[in-house]
Design a protein that fits this description.
Shape: globular
Largest sheet: 5 strands, antiparallel
CATH superfamily of the largest domain: YebC, transcriptional regulation domain
Strand order of the largest sheet: 1-9-3-2-4
Number of helices: 8
Number of domains: 3
Length: 244
């Protein structure tokens, strides 16, 4: 499988300012609220909630913020009415893009997404015209430099990932993507943690079946598009078939 292009998996390379961190906490809070509302506020029985909480904690989101978002989702506290949205689009060089979001106003968010795309050599696509190019997968991200245990080699880390139940693996620089079936994500994560392998993140992602190579100028334009989309309060995740 080709390495998947998930914008949040690129962001770990960048310094995160306090303002940016506040925006990330806000996005996590919305995600936690929606998941808790759908499937309950107990992370022990709601694996999706547990995954998001783990990611929020890795970004040092305060415990009280997490608990407040859960309580809004379960109705213990009053919360805003939020809807999940998914947009399919084309970006610079014809790359396919999936944008997941959570919004309190679908019409406003649609208009904002259209404007961002048009400003960065992109356009909205018809429903279904892009999503078929992707598969839903569990993705565990391991930073090789942070996961070193007993000076294990890359080959040893790969073998441990396969033994943990990985369907496939892919290296890009020092980052190892470990793929699983969606229903096996939690099991593979626990198996890796049992082997003392530090996990940077675990999530359910849209993974491109095939990646697309584009020119350097188009890659730069794509990065600017992803950053502009990420700045939008409603946008949660951005995936593409851009070859990385």
């Amino acid at each position: 499988m080709s390495g998947h292009s998930h914008f949040s998996s690129i962001k770990h390379k960048k310094a995160i300012t306090d303002a940016k961190r506040g925006k990330i906490f806000s996005k996590f809070a919305r995600q936690i609220l929606v998941i808790a509302k759908e499937k309950g506020g107990d992370p022990e029985t709601n694996s999706g909630l547990r995954l998001v909480i783990d990611r929020a904690k890795s970004m040092n989101m305060p415990k009280e913020n997490i608990e407040r978002a859960i309580q809004k989702g379960t109705g213990e506290l009053e919360g805003e009415k939020l809807d999940e949205v998914l947009y399919e689009a084309y970006g610079p060089g014809g790359i396919a893009v999936i944008i997941e979001g959570i919004t309190d106003n679908k019409n406003r968010t649609l208009g904002e997404i259209k404007q961002i795309l048009s400003q960065h050599q992109g356009k909205l696509a018809d429903s279904g015209s892009v999503k078929w190019m992707f598969e839903r997968k569990g993705v565990i991200v391991i930073n090789y430099q942070l996961s070193l245990v007993n000076n294990q080699s890359r080959e040893e880390l790969e073998m441990k990932a396969i033994e943990a139940g990985a369907e496939d693996i892919y290296w890009h620089e020092d980052i190892l993507d470990v793929y699983s079936k969606p229903e096996n994500l939690e099991k593979v994560k626990k198996n890796l943690e049992a082997q003392e392998i530090e996990i940077e993140s675990a999530s359910l992602d849209w993974v491109a079946k095939e990646t697309k190579e584009i020119g350097e100028k188009q890659k730069i334009a794509s990065e600017k598009l992803f950053e502009a989309l990420d700045e939008n309060d409603a946008v949660q995740e951005i995936y593409s078939n851009l070859k990385i």
